[in-house]
């Protein structure tokens, strides 16, 4: 088994080398065939998992971005919705006001502040985060209304999960033609800054940072398949306000639902990873609406006598935007014993024809 | 990493003893013999001379004295016999002394809390002793096995770290002062913040004394629930003594001979006496192979553990001055194997090393004043290492990732000095000083100045009439790190109501100091935000204890002893975790909670010919904190326990059969649940009770060899369930491990002395 994989990998690398040397001589654009298999050591950044890593199997590449490099994600396409940064545990509350200058953190009660802290004791936390599975369908910030006066001011906690806590912000977002206008300020400030955001339809979202303005975060929507990140997740919990508790989980895997990527899981007991072929694909249903289809299912949480570990009885099938089918399994939570650097391997099952 | 080769040490020890010159025995002028009421020799009786120097008789009950004791007075005690005061008849050089037998606990000598060894019956403290015979008969592989069948003691297993946490009379182990020969142990560890009592060489333990109730006047911080004083073997009584022990034990149904699975104990001890000097050395290995239980892969339910112990000592003494230095070294490795993985398998090793230097002594300046001192310097380090095995390349290396390896270091210095000033026959004073300096550093502990604690204490013992003893005490301490209680008082009294009945009543103030960890802990990562609180003050308690002790001899072969005890402890300012009000993300510690315990204990012993039977019952109440918020929750939840020890001497076979039984009753408690509306309510939870039986046999072959065999955990208990719905990442879930199933052992002890 081990030797076999090693050989494919070697063959692949040799192939890539050969191919690139060919392309030097050939001025014509070349259709790059999808990568057949590989091992990816995910660059999560280490034990404090500072990064979100976007992975594309077709190219066998990844892009790592600091989780706290952005604050707001403006939806592109036809929708007018804005997400907050779930990868830092950000939370937002509507204030009922539409004038940003009348809102101040000084007016917040202790309960208002506590509601904006992501913790196991915050039973209403789920009301203040984007839906962990389908963020655009239930965002913390209501869809931006075409009626300017219907858009409320929100108090935004920029998240303190695995990152330094920052002071609260107040924001108000309105439409600006096909784009957005963002008003923002520190939550106790007397005046505000206004920024226009233009949609970029090559991307799922346009990302904004209070410090750096528009920033590059997510690769183009057809340039990534899955991402590994720490982020806000949820779990059924009867005592929570809606029976669902929002909490922060450090090993989430999202598939690119807004870029048309689907994911399905297969148990080793049903079909062994090595035996999974193109014929088995038909039996699967690919989920491209719940980005937590893989989520945290790939690892065990550990317990009093065991540490967290990759589950060895499950693997995943990914259908990318080009209809290439990959089988993917996670190998490790660590690199040289360091958490936040998981490894996975993938293999092309069928190519788009 | 240190690894010990037993063979190497055995050779070194052997050479050490061979190299010592064989010295001529000092000329004895007086020779005595100790016999029982049938005229049979009593082995190893202790002869206490009036100046409190001790001698020990040999196997044949013979002892010799270099000179006539002052006023010819001597005290003779032996396990299983009544202690007598005798006078050496003037003019005679040989004499025979007759001891009458007793049950072993009728006349036990105790040292805890007293200036000098004292009969348990005379002590103002109600001291429970687990005697040398009991320990020998039981052939334990660790001290937990001995303590866990005692009334009021519960252990909960921390199988993630391969250690265990103790509870004494409803109070957690961090409230129990663990002493070794009166010297406090350093190295509180883990989330339970307590001394790991199993990091003591079982082969060195002579007996264990347990004092219930606070002894903070004498022993200072943490002696709030009580004191467990582990008395090590003195060995010094023989001219020359070599002992070797080998014991093999199954761990449940898992065993492989001498290595790997099972428990493997090896120990060699030697001592040598030369005029005023005595020397000793011992080395022990205690290897526990772990227990897989339900685990099928690389993991273990009970982690494997290797322990190596080394003890060296040298003593010097004359009529008025005794000095003893001891060095104890511990090396322990606990192996935690990670799960199978496709790429990287991670294993952890928890390595503890402890160097403990002790200097104790006693100086009798004259018959009116003497003092003892006990000093210790301990260097305790616990290292966690992470090892990576790459499945695909076969590489095995230590991880260098941040946080993969960590060390916590504690150093402690303690010095306690107690004077004993006999002002009059009916009145004596015991002044004392107690210094404790502790430093802690390492991962997750903030830079700190350590804790320096200086205390003086004074207790007096007044005996207005011979049947009454009153012992008041006061302690004043100064601490560099936390607020100490102003003055710690205690009052212990003992009334001999009649010849057979003693009443003890005591009040004491106790306190538990915040530990270095509670003061300076600092652990922040993505899923933890925990910090210590340097402003913590000590927890304090008010405790009341009483006991009635009735002893009677029904006829020459039947003796009865019954002790009825009651206690009540009220703890204030208990340290508990809570949310930091300035940042509710952060968990820290506060002096917020209240806690109480109360209970009754009843102990009944019979000694009838060759049979000793002991039946005990306790009923202990633990405070429910939730009763402050929820009216339906009772103030206290009560738990019964029953234990029985039976020892039968099968004379024709020279075999002792011992049975230990304990029923640990179900432990109720309350926890908060929240309904779908978010309203909290209290629900009763229950931790199951369980029964435990150990049986052991000890047979002597000739003078030198004895064999122990038996079975532990006869009822095959593995885990008990709890109806608690709670439990976090570090909690035990709903099943709590108790044992690893029925185990069998066979051990040999060889002793050579003269």
UniProtKB/TrEMBL annotation, chain A:
It holds the Pfam family HmuY. Transmembrane segments: none annotated. Keywords: Signal. PROSITE patterns: PROKAR_LIPOPROTEIN. Residues 1-22 form the signal peptide. It comes from the Bacteria. This is HmuY protein. It comes from Algoriphagus winogradskyi.
Automatic annotation (TrEMBL), chain B:
InterPro entries: Beta-barrel_TonB, Beta-barrel_TonB_sf, CarboxyPept-like_regulatory, Plug_dom, Plug_dom_sf, TonB-dep_rcpt-like, TonB_box_CS. Keywords: Cell outer membrane, Membrane, Receptor, Signal, TonB box, Transmembrane, Transmembrane beta strand, Transport. Gene3D superfamilies: TonB-dependent receptor, beta-barrel domain, TonB-dependent receptor, plug domain. It is found in: Cell outer membrane. The keyword Membrane applies. PROSITE patterns: TONB_DEPENDENT_REC_1 (PS00430), TONB_DEPENDENT_REC_3 (PS52016). Residues 265-714 form the TonB-dependent receptor-like beta-barrel domain. Pfam families: CarbopepD_reg_2, Plug, TonB_dep_Rec_b-barrel. Belongs to the TonB-dependent receptor family. This is Outer membrane receptor for ferrienterochelin and colicins. It comes from Algoriphagus winogradskyi.
